[in-house]
Amino acid sequence: MAETISPKTIEENTNEDMMVKMMEQNLEGVMFHLFETDLYDLLKLPGFKALHHHQSQEETETLELLKHKYIEKYKKFPILKTKSIDRWEENEDLYKDLSEEKIISLVKESMKQYADWESEVLEHLLQWKRNVEDRKIVHKMIEDVMQEIKHIETLMDILEEHDYNYQCICEISDYLSRRYK
Ligand SMILES: [Fe+2]
């Protein structure tokens, strides 16, 4: 005889799936910021490095909180899968050309990837929030990512106004160093 699934079980599964999805996305986010931290270290732009370091720490704290809530509720490890681990290997040869022109194109590409990534995160969180029991934490994550997007857009507007010239990139880096020291 087929087992009947009560609506409660479906709800529980959905919440668990959503929590795993959120944690996986969060882990991707932390990995993104860890790679960017190393990238800007290589490019000798300490302010951008500090920005990504700050974000990796903040988002690690959120991930810890999500994992704690999951472990408390389901009494087991969350099984998380990540795809972005090979970004270092993919960019292995980057150090071979660090001319000003190359740095400009790398910063431009990195800022675009950053904005795209956070927009995707926001879109997913807005989709998932209805199915997650703990809405307070999702709301906080939505607020954080909205603030992050606003900040990236401000930086991109200034960089675009100056056509991403190297001098402007260095000035933004100095400003970020003061902000995140
Ligand atoms: Fe982020």
Features of this protein?
mainly alpha, Ferritin, single chain, 6 helices, binds fe (ii) ion, 181 residues
Low-confidence stretches: none
Helix proportion of residues, in percent?
Answer: over 70%
The CATH topology is: Ferritin
Helices and strands, in order, run as HHHHHH
Structural class by helix and strand composition: mainly alpha
Number of strands: 0
CATH homologous superfamily heading: Ferritin, core subunit, four-helix bundle
Percent of residues in beta strands: under 5%
Identify the CATH class. Answer: Mainly Alpha
| Distinct ligands | fe (ii) ion
Name of the CATH architecture: Up-down Bundle
Shape: elongated
Give the number of domains. 1
Please give the count of helices.
6
Largest sheet: none
* Overall pLDDT: 92
Question: Termini distance?
Answer: 64 Å
The radius of gyration over CA amounts to 19 Å
Helices and strands, with pairings:
Elements: H1 7-42, H2 46-74, H3 87-90, H4 100-128, H5 135-161, H6 166-179
This protein binds fe (ii) ion.
Fe (ii) ion binds at residues 29, 33, 55, 59, 118, 148.
